[in-house]
Design goal:
Layout lengths: L1 H17 L6 H15 L5 H13 L1 H16 L4 H11 L1 H9 L1
Helix pairs in contact: 1-4, 4-5
């Protein structure tokens, strides 16, 4: 699930940044939620909300995580292995974010 989650986050942020939507937070939230509903249709609503809440709290952290995973997978490392290692690397930041 972590690999799928990071891929979704990376795609959402790229789309938002590419289209310069970042300046309008209400549009950003709407698009993010619609995209999440579409991509995570098999994920229970509660988990989807939790993921979106974390993303909204610290979008730069998730952008950094997604960029690192992308860089390493383009370097030839297996995506699952990379995702686990990167999530472990940012474990402290993620747990702090979850406790806020």
């Amino acid at each position: 699930m972590a690999a799928h989650f990071i891929c979704i986050l990376r795609l959402v942020w790229r789309a938002l940044l590419r289209n310069d939507i970042m300046h309008n937070m209400s549009v950003q939230h709407f698009l993010l939620r619609q995209f999440a509903k579409h991509k995570m249709k098999n994920v229970p609503e509660g988990q989807r909300e939790q993921i979106l809440t974390l993303l909204e709290k610290d979008p730069e952290l998730f952008k950094k995580i997604g960029d690192e995973i992308e860089r390493r997978t383009k370097g030839g490392e297996p995506q699952t292995k990379v995702t686990i290692e990167v999530m472990k690397k940012y474990r402290t930041e993620l747990s702090t974010l979850m406790s806020k």
